[in-house]
Amino acid sequence: GENVEQHPSTLSVQEGDSAVIKCTYSDSASNYFPWYKQELGKGPQLIIDIRSNVGEKKDQRIAVTLNKTAKHFSLHITETQPEDSAVYFCAAKEGNTPLVFGKGTRLSVIA
Amino acid sequence: ETGVTQSPTHLIKTRGQQVTLRCSSQSGHNTVSWYQQALGQGPQFIFQYYREEENGRGNFPPRFSGLQFPNYSSELNVNALELDDSALYLCAAQRGLAGNNEQFFGPGTRLTVL
Question: How far A46 CA sits from the closest chain B CA (Å)?
């Protein structure tokens, strides 16, 4: 089955700097890669996703890149703000199979 | 907000007891998935319900069971609770079964087993 590895487990950045979180996956058939943000006391919330027919997707300060050959994808947050502080999860799936999540990255943005 | 609600928010049980967790979502979100999130880990898929039938199951024993009702609300039941069942239980609702339909997560139920 699918296995998703996520790095780093914790990340601290100064406000205004960029943050990058990386994930690798094992199943080459996976074709959908969402990223979730989980704030304290809340469930995960989808912030951006990418499908396997696309190499990069951007939404304001957030971007995701996908390298299918290497089986890795990354989340990029630019101009970080204190409200970006949260736990971020990557996930992967193929078709109607269940989402497989990474273990999460705790991002702290220091004002 | 996601339109997905879960109850109760917190729950404390002892080993061997049984627990029922509940999830409801806005109209049209007819597929419900349940996840277990241990402390410091990502959510792990338990099972999914569609049209009141189980539609896929993760690596969880039969003492984890579920129901979905005609209004799409759902229950997760866990029998013979074990200490390792302590976790945040999340439900996620989506429209239909398409693999890349967005899943909307509820805030979760924090279960502590003593």
Answer: 8
Could you report the per-residue pLDDT of B59-92, keeping only the tens digit for each? 999 999 999 999 999 999 999 999 999 999 999 9
DSSP B41: S
Kind and range of the H or E run holding B5: strand B5-7
Of A31, A36, A103, the CB nearest to B41: A103
**pLDDT digits over B5-54, tens only?**
999 999 999 999 999 999 998 877 889 999 999 999 999 999 999 999 99
Nearest CA to CA, how far is B38 from chain A (Å)?
10
Provide DSSP, A7-57: E-SEEEEETTS-EEEEEEES-TT--EEEEEEE-TTS--EEEEEEETT-SEE
First to last CA, chain B: 32
